[in-house]
Recover the amino acids of this structure.
């Protein structure tokens, strides 16, 4: 199991929306990914500490209640401080309140250090595809093939 | 007449109890100063002097906390995760945790570990398949040091063999066991506990010069706190058809430390509570090294605060004491660890020290809740164990035997007496008193004579409320 891809996922902040998170967990497990679900109402510290102990390749942050910008800011910096700065950060959900242009929202989250941001309605498979792609380009083709 | 002889070789006293296995009564008991420095059997023989016919007891078993008890250093990765899991494994094995280290060990920390002189080092780090670098780094640091103590490797399964090999290559004595936290926030501390116990039996007892007791009795089978924890578990769960007391808490008020054991799931008792953090052990032990009646009286006193202490003294008794006299007495207690309170005033002070030791030790043992206001309304987060509905709190330790109002001491555990309303300490428990000091003895009997042990303990614990 040591060379399996590992993802830490959870719902950040004071957000208690559990269902989407569970769907993501199932999708990840189905794909053979080592999944570490830290659940709802997760703090940035919990995401980081989980990533350290489990040697995670990526952190998937969900936020459904509109306070995403406030809750997600600083996660990249904290990861860097904690020595896991190279972890992939994905974020998705109802990240902001009201009808805002998705392009701007995405730009905002990418500027905060996230590698990818997803609007509502994204299928898990899309993000999983991206995860493979990102890890592949990061690790280099050769090493990647050696894994499988 | 079948009987068993149970001995607790403590840091100050060696206590022997003979139990009649038919009536389940204590038939004789003896006590003498522990003599580890000279020869442990001197004190033991003296304690046995008062016990007629002890040689013929069917079981002659002992537990020990002498020569500093069992001292462990826990090493993990993240402080709240594997480092905490390693600490809990060590505590659950009845040891004293001298210090817990996390992340990469530094040269300075290696020096510190040598200075602290533990009996065992417990090396964890990483979930299975998780972080590999830190445990390898720490194993290498230990391998390159001249630390001679036994090292238990209980970390990330993917690299623990490698960590073990690194240590072995440098001629360290190592034991490889299962990861204390195989998955995030999931505890797996039993294998490490068992390994600690084996090392205690096969090695530490020899090293501390305690093995000599084998000349007189069957042997030392566990550290004393471990015996108390075993007693607690049997008392809670019962044995076969013979009912136990249900979920419970034991507070052991000692001279140097106050231990709290809880045998309870600790699950939230109210609806809509989110339980967070590291999984809680069902049989959990915590040790407070700054809360105690003698050696730790001065640190306990500073936790209480002088104003608070004087105020309580005025409220609960009609004693007026000036600060200087009080502080001199507290210092005296700190230095004279076998002193027994003589005057009414000294007993009042003991009573208050005991009350606060219980109060703070329980406050640190139990979990707490926090209400968070979210856009969807209020939700409650729980960390640690919810022990509000526990129906039994048992008090043990020297002060329980020597003080006239032990129930007052144990009321320190009650929810209503805690300062923080978010703490999950027992609401309305029944109080039981270990007036005859039988819990460790009961714990020693658990594996050989579980039913007798249970009946004996239920018979000899006094319910006071």
């Amino acid at each position: 199991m040591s060379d399996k891809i590992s993802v830490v996922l959870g719902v950040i902040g004071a957000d208690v929306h559990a269902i989407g998170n569970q769907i993501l967990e199932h999708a990840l497990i189905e794909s053979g990914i080592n999944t570490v679900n830290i659940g709802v109402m997760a703090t940035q510290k919990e995401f980081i500490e989980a990533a350290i102990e489990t040697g995670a390749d990526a952190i998937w942050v969900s936020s459904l209640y509109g306070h995403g910008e406030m809750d997600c800011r600083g996660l990249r910096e904290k990861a860097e401080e904690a020595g896991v700065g190279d972890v992939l950060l994905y974020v998705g959900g109802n990240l902001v309140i009201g009808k805002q242009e998705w392009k701007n929202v995405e730009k905002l989250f990418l500027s905060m250090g996230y590698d990818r941001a997803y609007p509502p309605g994204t299928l898990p498979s899309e993000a999983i595809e991206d995860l493979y792609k990102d890890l592949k380009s990061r690790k280099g083709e050769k090493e990647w093939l050696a894994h499988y | 007449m079948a009987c068993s002889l149970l001995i607790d070789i403590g840091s100050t006293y060696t206590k022997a109890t003979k139990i009649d296995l038919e009536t389940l009564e204590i038939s004789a008991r003896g006590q003498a100063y522990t003599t580890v420095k000279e020869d442990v059997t001197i004190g033991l023989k003296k304690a046995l002097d008062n016990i007629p016919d002890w040689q013929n007891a069917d079981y002659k078993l002992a537990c020990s906390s002498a020569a500093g008890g069992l001292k462990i250093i826990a090493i993990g990765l993240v402080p709240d995760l594997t480092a905490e899991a390693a600490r809990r494994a060590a505590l659950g094995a009845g040891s004293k945790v001298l210090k817990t280290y996390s992340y990469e060990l530094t040269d300075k920390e290696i020096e510190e570990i040598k200075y602290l002189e533990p009996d065992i080092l417990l090396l964890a780090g990483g979930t299975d398949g998780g972080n590999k670098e830190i445990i390898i780094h720490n194993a290498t640091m230990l391998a390159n040091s001249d630390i001679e103590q036994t090292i238990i490797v209980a970390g990330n399964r993917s690299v623990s063999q490698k960590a073990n090999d690194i240590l072995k290559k440098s001629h360290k004595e190592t034991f490889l066991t299962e990861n204390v936290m195989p998955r995030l926030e999931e505890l797996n501390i039993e294998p490490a506990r068992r390994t600690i116990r084996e090392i205690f039996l096969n090695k530490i007892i020899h090293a501390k010069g305690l093995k000599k007791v084998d000349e007189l009795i069957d042997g030392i089978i566990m550290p004393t706190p471990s015996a108390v924890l075993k007693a607690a578990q049997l008392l809670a769960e019962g044995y076969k058809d013979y009912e136990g007391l249900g979920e419970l808490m034991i507070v052991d008020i000692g001279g140097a430390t106050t231990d709290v054991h809880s045998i309870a799931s600790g699950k939230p008792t109210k609806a809509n509570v989110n339980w967070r953090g590291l999984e809680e052990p069902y049989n959990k032990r915590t040790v407070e090294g700054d809360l105690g009646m003698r050696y730790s009286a001065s640190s306990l006193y500073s936790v209480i605060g002088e104003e608070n202490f004087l105020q309580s003294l005025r409220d609960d008794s009609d004693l007026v004491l000036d600060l200087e006299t009080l502080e001199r007495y507290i210092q005296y207690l700190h230095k004279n660890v076998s002193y027994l309170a003589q005057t009414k005033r000294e007993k009042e002070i003991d009573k208050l020290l005991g009350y606060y030791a219980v109060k703070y030790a329980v406050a640190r043992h139990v979990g707490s809740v926090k209400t968070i206001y979210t856009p969807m309304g209020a939700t409650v987060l729980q960390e640690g164990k919810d022990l509000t509905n526990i129906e039994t709190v048992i008090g043990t330790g020297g002060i329980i035997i020597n003080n006239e109002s032990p129930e007052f001491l144990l009321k320190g555990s009650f929810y209503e007496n805690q300062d923080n309303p978010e703490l999950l300490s027992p609401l309305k428990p029944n109080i039981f008193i270990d007036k005859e000091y039988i819990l460790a003895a009961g714990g020693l009997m658990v594996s050989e004579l579980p039913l007798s042990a249970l009946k004996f303990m239920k018979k000899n614990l006094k319910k006071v409320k």
